[in-house]
Please model this.
Amino acid sequence: MPLRLLKYGLSRDYRVSGDIQATPELKPAYDVVIIGGGGHGLSCAHHLAKYHGIKSVAVLEKGYLAGGNTARNTTTIRSNYITPEGIAFYKEGVELFERLSQELDFNVMFSQRGQLTLAHTEATMRSFHMRAEMGKHMGTRTEVVDQKGVEELCPLLNMDYGGPLEILGGLWHADGGTARHDAVAWGYAAQASRRGVEIHQRTEVQGFEVTGDRVLAVRTNRGRVACGQVMIATGGMNYDVALMAGVELPIRCYPLQAMVTQPLKPWLDTLVSSVSLHTYLVQSSRGEVVIGGGSDPYQLYSTRSTLDMKEHLAEGAVHLFPFLQGVRLLRQWAGITDMTPDYSPIMGASPLANLWLDCGWGTWGFKATPVAGKRMAQTIAEGRVPDILKPFALERFDTFRLLNEMGATAASH
Amino acid sequence: MKLLTCPMNGPRNIDEFQSFGPVRARPDPNATADRDWSRHLFRAENRKGIVVEWWRHVPSNYFFLAERNLVSNEIIRTFDASELRDRA
Model:
């Protein structure tokens, strides 16, 4: 990489590399059809082509590449969950991010600056102790810090001493970080494309041809495609797409809203989130402060923003950092999150033998882009679910073996 | 602010209300297999269309029903829970 960069820098011929081919004609059949051209689908395609030698792969994307939840999330990368199964999975995700720029030969701007989650109540502090102990046990860097520790990590925070929202301490997760979402998606797309994966944009799946327990083909607005294996990774549309194949997922869709401020000089070097205020902040490499929170309070498929949720986010942000009060908002948006009852994803087998699920990513999907792609590719290539994914099976709801990550997820990503 | 018309309190800001999700028929506890219990607990109506759902006006702790479009967020009508009982 450095040598190539040097050669490129010294050459007279600055050729722009064509990242991704224009959408080709659809072939009548592929070994693997991936529905959804977001981070997860592209990551899976990359891993299938690079590590499993499966190159007859089509990624079908209804809109444009990485234009759904990959573009709408707030790029938090962390592994400070609460269940051992969850931590093991997300830990592998963080480790893949640590070397992702090398893997993709593309700078994904991974910045492992740590995540600080704040507690304003004793109950939250107790849950932090539990998460810290679980995290240490599983080999992640997660610890509880006291008020002094919080002040040292984030000196500009309003501690609200003696006030109703006094910060009592925090959960410091040194492994936490952020990366550039577009770079992640485009890096995977470029690598997959280079190895022969076909990326079909503006190709909408409209139905499945199912015989017995197998999907024979998917019907799209550009024609029928026969498939050996199919994976659904369509973010907010997972419920709809799975239903077309006759699979009813335990998912309810809620909007999730976020916004960014005008660019400021660098002042916030950690990711900060508050459980009680349902607000989290991170300063992007462009200086904009990205502000996000919890999902909307009721089910909806609309990506329209609402003033009350934006006010709520602004209120939380200004409470934590009062000097933000005069700062202007630059952009605001919403995405549709596919929430599961236990705040854990649904990965692995479906009731159909060759239909694989990478669903239920709710508000926590971006951080898992590399690991979900890697492990789902392994699942599809080997035809069986690896141990690390088994706890996330769809059947867990029928056997009541839920993986409750609600306390480690809600508004703290 | 979006308004929700409470059958008891009239039109109020929607942040005075709490959503309790789509109405689901309660299974018979004596004659229900585990699988159907799991369905009842974890699979709520999520199709793009109109749902009938429980809402609560928080200050008055009054529960009622609303018909709402899950795509446009249009609240079609709200009604007292007795209507649901009378229908059954």
